Amino acid sequence: MRKYQFINFHIKENYYLIEINRPKQLNAINKGTISELKKCFTEIRSSTKGFYGVIITGVGEKSFVAGADIVEFNELDQESAKKLSENGHELFNTIESMPIPVIALVNGYSLGGGCELALSCHLRIATENAKFSQPEINLGTIPGYGGTQRLTQIIGKGRALEMMLTAEMVDAKSALEYGLVNYILDDKEKAMEKSVSILNTVKRKSPKAIANVIKSVNNFYNKDVNGFDQEIKIFSKLCNSEDFKEGVNAFHEKRCPSFKGK
Ligand code: DAK
User: Fold this and answer.
1) Sign of the dihedral defined by the CA atoms of residues 96, 102, 103, 107, in that order
2) Is 128 annotated as catalytic?
3) How many CA atoms lie within 13 A of 5 on its CB side?
4) What is the pLDDT of residue 75?
5) Domain ranges of the chain
6) What is the predicted pLDDT for the residue at 218?
């Protein structure tokens, strides 16, 4: 385990596990947590060879992340709020564009900035006690870490507006109906098994193709590029890769492919 103050960073055999570790504050994310997560994801990004994903969760059973640390809001002025929001955006954009899948294991409360953190991940797996909310409106503000955009992308405008305007908590069952989570499992242990089993399936695929599926899907939401044009470019480029040749050969030879990520 690597040393951090607000997170636990575990390097497992084939994947990384990050735990937000502020249980006394229900894992609310303060500035320090954001800056440690940034460092951690930068480290992961530079070392993805042999690793097939990242699982991010909160310490304990009660809370994934109960939002941004409200205590820090006392000192905010326009300038520092802008900086805080930009820092959060940078982190969540980094997570969203990771070349390996990032799974949010949502155990309990996923509120405000916590819901936004989960939204920036590629998949969300919830425990039965998971609760999602964007309660910023109760504090007289709006989601400041990309929530107005990503929640709308993921669950659609009507439901996203309802969540942001009412600040009501959405339980795991409704979250599944909304498409906000991929699966609900009984408890954290089972949710961890499910997350690892998904990563074990991904592990057999081409690392090059994995990274490019994520990139290409993200292009759908990037207003500066045409996702269809980009797909043609990415698809043709991958045809030159060793992994593509290996995949096609393995099919003809009726064997499992052995991808090298080249
Ligand atoms: N920040 C700091 N401390 C928190 C916290 C939070 N978000 N959530 C809980 N805690 C602390 C509580 O103060 C309490 O501390 P002590 O009193 O024991 O010292 C401890 O965690 C346990 O909480 P409770 O005693 O309240 O536990 P309960 O089971 O009774 O209630 C709860 C659980 C999750 C329903 C309740 O704690 C709660 O309502 N928490 C606040 C949820 C919330 O409103 N979160 C903030 C969402 S808004 C922006 C950037 C970001 C954002 C906005 C703008 N800009 C840059 C402009 C993001 C905003 C948000 O995330």
Assistant:
1) negative
2) no
3) 8
4) 86
5) 2-202, 207-252
6) 98
Buried b (16+ CB within 10 A) or exposed e, 247-257: beeeeeeeeeb
pTM over 0.85: yes
**pLDDT tens readout for residues 123-160:** 999 999 999 999 999 999 999 999 999 999 999 999 99
135: Cβ below 6 Å to ligand 1? Answer: yes
Q: Whose CA is nearest to atom 45 of ligand 1?
A: 67
- Is 96 annotated in the active site? no
DSSP for 147-187 reads: HHHHHHHHH-HHHHHHHHHH---EEHHHHHHHTS-SEEESS
Q: Are 199 and 52 in contact (CB under 8 A)?
A: yes
Q: Which CATH superfamily is domain 2-202 in?
A: 2-enoyl-CoA Hydratase; Chain A, domain 1 (3.90.226.10)
Q: Mean pLDDT over residues 86-101, rounded?
A: 97
Q: Is the CB of 85 under 6 A from ligand 1?
A: yes
Question: What's the order of all strands across the beta sheet hosting 170-171?
Answer: 63-65, 109-111, 131-133, 170-171
Token pair 């939002």 in the structure block, residue: 67
Which amino acid type is present at position 47?
A: S
